[in-house]
Design brief:
heterodimer; A: mainly alpha; MetI-like fold; 11 helices; B: MetI-like fold; two-stranded antiparallel ribbon; 13 helices; 2 strands; 77% helix
Chain lengths: 287, 298
C-alpha cells in the first residue's frame, strides 16, 4: 500500500515535470520560429536599393530609407527626453527619497505609466503636444509621446541597478569628504552604469517598435523626402509595415517581409547590445 | 570655490527632486487631457445611446457595447492562453530547468516581449489567419480567436517575468523544509513554493491581462474590425472590434472637436481607468503580501 503510494507520487512528479517542460517548449518554439521565418522570407528583399532608396510606384517598389531614418530620428528624439529625466528620477528614488506617502505615490504613478495602453499615449500626445502645444503632427510630438511611455522602463531598471550598489561605497566616499552629489556622480552612477544602460536600451527598443503612440502624433503615410526639422512628420518602420500590410492593395509580399525584417533587425540589435552589456557587467562585478 | 560647488549641488538636487515627482505629473496630465477631450461626450451623446449595441459613427450611432464585449472576449481568450503557459514557463525556468537552459530561456522570453506588436500582427495576417481559416473551416481567418492567440503570445512575457520573480523570491529554506519532510520536488512546487508566491503570481496574471486589454496594433490587424455585439461563445470565431483598435483605426479620420472625436477620447478614458484599476489592484496585492511577510519574519 505504502509502496504504491510512493511510486504514485514519483509518477505524478514525472508526468508533471513533462507537462511543464512541454509548456515551456511550446512557449519558446513560436518565438524562435517567428524570428527565423521572418529572416528566411525577408532576406531576398534586402538589397542596397531597398535599404538606401526611396519608395516608388505607390510604395510597391523601391526602398524604405525614409522609414529607417524616421525610426532612427524618433528613437534618438525619445532618448533625448527620456534618458536624462528617467535617470534623474531613478537617482531621486534610490538616493534621496525616504519612504513617505509621497514616495509611494510616485511609485504607484510609475507603475501606472507602465500599464497605460500605448494607444492611450497616442491620444494624450495628440491632445497635449499636437493640438494644445501646437507642435503639429511632428517628430517632436511623437518623440515626446514615446518618451513618456518609455520613462517607467528606464526609471525602474535604473533604480534597481542604483540600489544594487553596496551602501559601503557611499559611506566611504562621504567619509573621504565628498558631497552627496559627488558621491552619486563619481561612485554610484559609475558602478550602476551597465545596469542603467541595459534599461535605457530596452526602453528605447520598445519605443522604436511602437506604432500606436505615433499614429496620430507624428507618423506619415508617405513622404517623398526626408524630414528636415523636428516639426516635420516622418515615416517610421513600424507604421510603414502596418500601412503596407493593411492599407495598400496589391503590395508585393517580398517588400512586406523585407520591411518586417529590417524592423526586426533594428529591434534585435538593441536587444542583443543590452544583453551583452548586462552579462559582461555581471561577469566583471566584484561585489 | 566652496560656495559655487554648494550652489551647483543645490540646483542639481532640486532638478533631481523635480524629475522624481515628474511621474505623478505625467499621470495627472494624461488623465487631464483624456477628460478634457472625452467628457464633452456626455453633452453630445445621450448616455442611453452610448450603451447601445450599434457602433456606426457615420450615422451618429455611438454605442460602445460591441467594442467593450469585443475587448473582453479577445482579452479573455488571451488570458486562457497566457496564464497557463506563462505560469508553466515561469515554474519551469525557476524550479525545474537546469542552469544552462535557464540562461537561454530567459533572454528568449524577454525577446518575445521586445518584438514589435506590428510584426506579430503582420505574421498574424499572412500566416496565422489563413491557417486558422483552413484548419477550422471558417469563412474568414480574421476573428476574435486569432486575436486571442496573438495577444496570448504578447502577454506571456509579462506573466513569465513577474511570476518568475515571485517564485525566485520564495526563500530556499521553504523548499528544503518540504524536501526534508519527504515531499517530492513536484509536491513542493504545488503545495509550498506556488502558495508562498501566490500574491506575486496573482500580480503576474493581472499585469498580463492589463497588457492584453491595452494591446492595439496586433489586435487591430487580425480581428477583422467588425463592431458586432458578441452575445455567445461562438462569436469567438467571428470578427470583432476592440476598444483600442477602434481608437487607432478611426482617430486619424475624424475632425478634432467633433462628436466622434470626443467619443474616441471617452473610450481612451475608459481604457485609462481600467489600466489604473488593474495596476493599483496589482500593486496593493504586492504591498499586502510584503506586510504579511514582514509580520511572519519579525
Amino acid at each position: 500500500m505504502k509502496r504504491s503510494f510512493s511510486l504514485n507520487r514519483h509518477l505524478v512528479q514525472r508526468l508533471g515535470f513533462t507537462a511543464i517542460t512541454l509548456m515551456a517548449v511550446a512557449t519558446v518554439i513560436p518565438i524562435v520560429a517567428t524570428v527565423i521565418y521572418i529572416f528566411v522570407q525577408g532576406l531576398p528583399a534586402i538589397s542596397l536599393e531597398f535599404l538606401a532608396g526611396f519608395p516608388r510606384e505607390g510604395m510597391r517598389a523601391g526602398g524604405i530609407l525614409p522609414a529607417i531614418i524616421g525610426t532612427l530620428y524618433l528613437t534618438i528624439g525619445t532618448a533625448l527626453f527620456s534618458v536624462p529625466l528617467g535617470i534623474a528620477a531613478a537617482i531621486y528614488l534610490s538616493e534621496y527619497a525616504a519612504d513617505t506617502p509621497l514616495t509611494r505615490t510616485i511609485r504607484i504613478a510609475i507603475i501606472n505609466l507602465a500599464g497605460i495602453p500605448s494607444v492611450v499615449y497616442g491620444l494624450f500626445g495628440l491632445g497635449l503636444f499636437v493640438l494644445f502645444l501646437n507642435f503639429g503632427t511632428s517628430i517632436l510630438a511623437a518623440s515626446l509621446t514615446l518618451s513618456i511611455m518609455t520613462l517607467p522602463v528606464i526609471i525602474s531598471t535604473a533604480e534597481e541597478s542604483l540600489r544594487a550598489v553596496p551602501q559601503a561605497f557611499r559611506t566611504v566616499s562621504i567619509s573621504l569628504g565628498a558631497t552627496r552629489w559627488q558621491t552619486i556622480r563619481r561612485i554610484v552612477l559609475k558602478e550602476a552604469l551597465p545596469g542603467i544602460l541595459t534599461g535605457v536600451i530596452l526602453g528605447l527598443e520598445r519605443a522604436a517598435g511602437e506604432t500606436a503612440p505615433i499614429l496620430f502624433t507624428g507618423a506619415a503615410f508617405f513622404l517623398p523626402q526626408l524630414p528636415g526639422s523636428p516639426f516635420d512628420a516622418t515615416m517610421a518602420l513600424p507604421y510603414h509595415l502596418f500601412v503596407i500590410s493593411t492599407q495598400v492593395p496589391e503590395m508585393p509580399i517580398q517588400i512586406q517581409y523585407g520591411t518586417a525584417l529590417v524592423l526586426l533587425v533594428f529591434v534585435l540589435t538593441m536587444n542583443l547590445i543590452a544583453t551583452v552589456i548586462r552579462s559582461r557587467a555581471r561577469a566583471k562585478r566584484q561585489w | 570655490m566652496e560656495k559655487s560647488l554648494n550652489w551647483s549641488e543645490f540646483i542639481i538636487t532640486r532638478l533631481i527632486k523635480a524629475s522624481g515627482y515628474s511621474a505623478i505629473l505625467f499621470v495627472a496630465l494624461i488623465f487631464f487631457f483624456l477628460v478634457r477631450e472625452g467628457v464633452p461626450t456626455f453633452g453630445e451623446v445621450e448616455s442611453t445611446s452610448l450603451l447601445n449595441i450599434r457602433w456606426y459613427p457615420i450615422e451618429d450611432r455611438f454605442g460602445i457595447l460591441p467594442l467593450i464585449t469585443g475587448s473582453i472576449m479577445v482579452t479573455f481568450g488571451a488570458a486562457l492562453i497566457a496564464v497557463p503557459f506563462g505560469i508553466g514557463t515561469a515554474i519551469y525556468i525557476s524550479e525545474i530547468a537546469p542552469r544552462w537552459v535557464r540562461e537561454i530561456l530567459k533572454p528568449l522570453v524577454e525577446l518575445l516581449g521586445g518584438l514589435p506588436s506590428v510584426v506579430l500582427g503582420f505574421l498574424g495576417i499572412l500566416v496565422l489567419s489563413p491557417f486558422l481559416r483552413v484548419f477550422l473551416d471558417l469563412p474568414t481567418g480574421l476573428t476574435a480567436f486569432t486575436g486571442s492567440l496573438l495577444l496570448g503570445g504578447i502577454a506571456v512575457p509579462t506573466v513569465v517575468s513577474v511570476a518568475e520573480d515571485a517564485l525566485d523570491a520564495v526563500p530556499r529554506a521553504y523548499r528544503e523544509g518540504a524536501w526534508a519532510l519527504g515531499a517530492t520536488r513536484w509536491q513542493t512546487i504545488w503545495r509550498v513554493t506556488l502558495p508562498a508566491a501566490r500574491s506575486g503570481v496573482l500580480t503576474a496574471i493581472m499585469l498580463g491581462v492589463g497588457r492584453a486589454i491595452g494591446e492595439t496594433m496586433a489586435v487591430m490587424m487580425v480581428t477583422g474590425n467588425a463592431p458586432i455585439l458578441a452575445t455567445q461563445l461562438g462569436s469567438l470565431f467571428s470578427p470583432v472590434r476592440t476598444m483600442t483598435a477602434t481608437i487607432a483605426a478611426e482617430m486619424g479620420e475624424v475632425a478634432s472637436g467633433s462628436t466622434h472625436y470626443h467619443v474616441l477620447f471617452f473610450i481612451g478614458m475608459v481604457l485609462f481607468l481600467i489600466s489604473l484599476g488593474v495596476n493599483i489592484a496589482a500593486s496593493s496585492v504586492v504591498f499586502r503580501a510584503k506586510k504579511r511577510a514582514e509580520r511572519i519574519l519579525s
